[in-house]
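hi support,

uploading two proteins for the ticket. first:
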Amino acid sequence: MCLPLFSHKSYIVVPPRHPRTIWRGSTLSARIFGIGLILFDPKKPDDPKFEIRVRAAKHEPDMFYVNRYMKLIEDELFT
């Protein structure tokens, strides 16, 4: 039995409160690691104006680690 312990795509959703130089570095890091980056306006909950800065890359989980960690936690999950 295999439980979904990992995601194929991951996004970070944050408000754009930091200086532009920090976002430039964050955008680069997100692209390197394949993590999506989305900005939004927290002051407008009805219309947050989501802006996708970086789209997440799809990654398949490494089944070696899925099985390894599953063995570590299966007693907690199924008892």
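and the second one:
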Amino acid sequence: MEILVLGAGVVGLTTAYYLQAAGHSVTIVDRHRKVAAETSHANGAQLSYSYVAPLAGPGILSKIPSWLMNGR
């Protein structure tokens, strides 16, 4: 199967890698000439796993207003 992947960021490249490993013909298209040109652009490559609360967890939605007000 021939597959077109839009975006050469982390998700696009990973998707293309596994599709190709599964035997598919993959073409990646991105608006930039280099791969991962905007990867981690907004967060400066900072990953803060210890500060992430899953929305699927019980009681999380009721905590959001207090979290938002603590920042002020």
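thanks. also noticed: The mean pLDDT is 82.
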